[in-house]
Amino acid sequence: MKKKVLITAYAVNPYKGSEDGIGWNIILHLCSHCDVVAVTRHNNRPDIERYLAQNPLSVGENLRFEYFDLPRWASFWKRGERGALSYHYFWHLGVAFFILAKKWSFDLAHHLNFNSDWSPSFLWLLRKPFVWGPVGHHPRIPKEFILPYGTKARRIDQLRWRTKRFFWTFDPFLNLTKRTAQKVIGLNSSVGKVLKLSTEKIVTLPAIASELPDIQSFATDKFRVLSVGRFVPLKGFDVTIRAFAHFYKKQNETAQRRLELVLIGKGPERERLQKMVVESGLPTAAIRFVEWVQREELPQFFASSQVFLFPSHEGGGMVVAEAMGFGLPVLCFNNVGPGENVDDTCGIKVNYSLGYELSINEFSLALERLFHDEAWRLKLSSGARQYFVKNFSWEQKAAQINQVYDKISPSISVSKPLLVLQATE
Question: What mean pLDDT is reported for the chain?
């Protein structure tokens, strides 16, 4: 008999990436293993229902969505980043009482997202076995790598880190979450350390994944370097620009005509990044800023590029999986984010310990070798596809999460008949 799993997912959308895409794909593929009721926010409902109407699912009978939001009077503060975080915190408290009121029958509960390991779950209120995660955090950006964005950016990053440390240390509900969760799924190896979890409780499972794409052949003489993300200090676009400029200037005029850096994204640092391009001496023909595109438009950029340069400081990085699916070697920092999802068969990692300028030089040297050594680039390209197949399919992620469920199954009685999950009015 299949397990009946109740999932709370703040962000779920079949048409979006990042957190929303993770929520949607994990829920969808878990239905091959379990009967799932997923509770999410009302603003996700139109896209979910439109997708399900246009794409009937073979596992549709195993999946039902329910919707919950805090009352209007309780959401007046939901403005800006801090307001959204506060709303998210109290949404997870409210949804636990919403589920209690429905009196649904289920075997275990799963707090799926947002993926923050410093914001608690309240599913312990349900008095059922529950799983928390994947959860994680963005590590603190090394000082040298945030100063290019000014002292204000560094102060903001310090404040964010202190806020996380405050919740990790003093939030009683977070301590309850850690103590009562049967399993905690961590996005990377740092989660168990900052939460001080036992090896029996923590399961490290990067949530990044994608569908394996069919690669179309693009006839081009260009050596295109691609980077995708929000234009914020966390993503390290300053390193991207300066490393590419360093590499570009070392090539002869004929080679330079083949080189192009494409940056896809938007965000508050775009003007600063464009100024960095001017200061670096890169000609306008060598770099292209592309306004954030729809997800269905991204494949053409991946397929027509040769390298994915992603010196991000984040704790995850969905685009890393997408790039590898298209056979792009990945250049990144050796950190607990992208660095834990890349090895020497599919990319190159640069250590922070080199410092700012030497790191830029290392990325530049990597680009130069990939440009001049076609055989090596093709070897890494093949390795990227193989690494993707082995590590980054949604089917695999769902199977791994189901294995986490199975590890707590002794406390779940699935041999006895269970009440059917009741549909709401």
Answer: 90
Are residue 386 and residue 397 in the same domain, yes or no? no
Any domain includes 33:
yes
- Do 277 and 194 sit in the same domain of this protein? no
Write a three-state SS string for the chain. CCEEEEEEECCCCCCCCHHHHHHHHHHHHHCCCEEEEEEECHHHHHHHHHHHHHCCCCCHHHEEEEECCCCHHHCCCCCHHHHHHHHHHHHHHHHHHHHHHHCCCCCEEEEEECCECCCCCCHHHHCCCEEEEEEECCCCCCHHHHHHHCHHHHHHHHHHHHHHHHHHHHCHHHHHHHHHCCEEEECCCHHHHHHCCCCCCEEECCCCCECCCCCCCCCCCCEEEEEECCCCHHHCHHHHHHHHHHHHHCCCHHHHCCEEEEEECCCCCHHHHHHHHHHHCCCHHHEEEECCCCHHHHHHHHHCCCEEECCCCCCCCHHHHHHHHCCCCEEEECCCCHHHHCCCCCEEEECHHHCHHHHHHHHHHHHHHHHHCHHHHHHHHHHHHHHHHHHCEHHHHHHHHHHHHHHCHHHCCCCCCCCCCCCCC
Q: What is the CATH number of the domain that holds 401?
A: 3.40.50.2000
Asked whether residue 138 is domain-assigned, the answer is yes
- 421 falls within a domain: no
Residue 91 has pLDDT above 70, yes or no: yes
**90: in domain:** yes
For residues 9 and 30, membership in a common domain is answered with yes
As for how many domains the chain has, the answer is: 2
Nearest Cα to 206, choosing from 303, 335, 101?
335
Do residues 281 and 199 share a domain?
Answer: no
205 shares its domain with 290: no
What range does the domain containing 230 cover?
A: 223-391
pLDDT tens-digit readout, 183-226? 999 999 999 999 999 999 999 998 888 888 877 666 578 999 99
